[in-house]
From TrEMBL:
Key words, A-Z: ATP-binding, Nucleotide-binding, Transport
InterPro entries: AAA+_ATPase, ABC_transporter-like_ATP-bd, P-loop_NTPase
Molecular function in Gene Ontology: ATP binding; ATP hydrolysis activity
ABC transporter domain mapped to chain residues: 5-228
One Pfam assignment: ABC_tran
Name the record gives this protein: ATP-binding cassette domain-containing protein
Lineage summary: Bacteria, Bacillati, Actinomycetota, Actinomycetes, Streptosporangiales
The keyword Transport belongs to this UniProt entry's keyword annotation: yes
Annotated organism of origin: Streptomonospora mangrovi
Family: Belongs to the ABC transporter superfamily.
SUPFAM superfamilies associated with the record: P-loop containing nucleoside triphosphate hydrolases
Amino acid sequence: MGTAVRVSGLTKRLGRTQALAGVDLRVETGRVHGLLGPNGAGKTTLLKTITGLSRPDSGSLELFGAPFTRGVLRDVGALVTQPGLWSRYTAVEHLRLHARLRGADPALIPRLLADVGMADHADRRVSAYSLGMRWRLGIAITLLARPRLLVLDEPTNGLDPVGMRDMRALLRRLAADGVAVLVSSHHLDQIAQTCDEVTVLVGGTVRFAGPLDGLAWDGDLEKGFFALLDRG
């Protein structure tokens, strides 16, 4: 169905730290691609670069088959940092405001609230929301413009087990509808239950990239992941 993201030889230094050191990444349309790695591996830096929040030092980035430009970001939905929400506004008020700003159809709002499990909290102010509820609303906002690429950093952040299950199901539905989904996580179980392909970053370099079952060792994803880390 096509390649949504193609990263080649991407480098980025943050102070004295080489956050990305020649990273390659490919994300296909209609697939859920997971980023795995320990703290400081470069996952968030890579996501920020793909979504235009950070500029690489070198390397190339293509979105939807063309070199990166700011204009192409209109087809990208991203939640990489804490969602910027107003405590005295409700979920519906946030979505109506963002719909006006983005030229999105406000008729989508009830369905989006249901998709992220917020239909019963639509008229509550954000000040009463838990962390998980804030993330759910942030994801709903990213989906307003019907993005072709969805980029999420720790999408199950703050969610309870039911919320995690529902979020996994939502990401799978989006992929089935032709959206390219790129997610990062520290949680092997969430990646295992959600993703088609996975890229493992360690120290700003790619240690593995390919189908999820290719990372497993004797059928055990955790063994395969830690084997990569143990190689130094």
